[in-house]
Amino acid sequence: MSAENKKIVTRFYDELFSHGNKEVIDELVGATYKNHNPQGVDGPEGIKNFITFFRKTFPERTKTTHRVLAEGDLVLLHSESAPAPGATPSVVVDIYRVEDGKIVEHWDVIQEVPETIVGGHDLFTTISEPAVALPDPNADTAGNKKLVTALFHELAVEKDPTVFERYAVDAFYEHNPQHADGAAAATELFTGLFAGNPEVTIDVKRVIAEGDYVAVHHHLKLNPADRGFSCIEFFRVRDGKIVEHWDAVQPVPETSRNDNTMF
Description:
- The protein is of the alpha+beta class.
- It is built from 6 helices and 10 strands.
- It has helices spanning 2-19, 23-28, 44-57, 141-156, 163-167, 183-196; strands at residues 29-35, 62-71, 74-82, 90-99, 102-112, 168-174, 201-210, 213-221, 229-238, 241-251.
- The chain is globular, with a radius of gyration of 18 Å.
């Protein structure tokens, strides 16, 4: 099912964003389509109206998908999008849910790439060996998912800032533009986060794993009154340790065109 769903979503994505083919919406999107993008609306017509606006407003927009993960009824795409060649790009992570061969639900997180990147790595490429973005079909998907889920449990529930010292290699590659490589830097980051925000919560919504890649979609709130952030994080796990990390973070807006929330 995962392989077939991946084919459906990647074809939909390419036809829609690369070619502007709105006919693929009638073919591949279900009538009950639910959109969690705060600027979007439900239903196939909402996608058609968005694509019409999108291509008219940004006729030179570029979009490159760097990795695709699929598990069960969920398919995730990690992409780079820019309003025109040479313009500042954004990280775009889309999650689609497929039911009976139709796309019926969509979540996303969008973050503009900043000018300064602390670790010096771009926000998309794979550095760890082997340096390929395709999930390894021989990797232990279930074991890797279990490892990342355990890491988030210790972060979210036990508030333990030292988790990366146990679950990651010492000098894992970090693609978050504000953070440096390695377990020591991650420990310092979460030590400060928990100390400065004693009521912080990390609410995991969904985990998608394929091969050596695991993605986690969660709601980060610094305090109970905070609207928080929609976050999607990618981990690459090799030989039982996290070796690389990417993410995208978007503040939850005050208003939305739908009642679905970003989660």
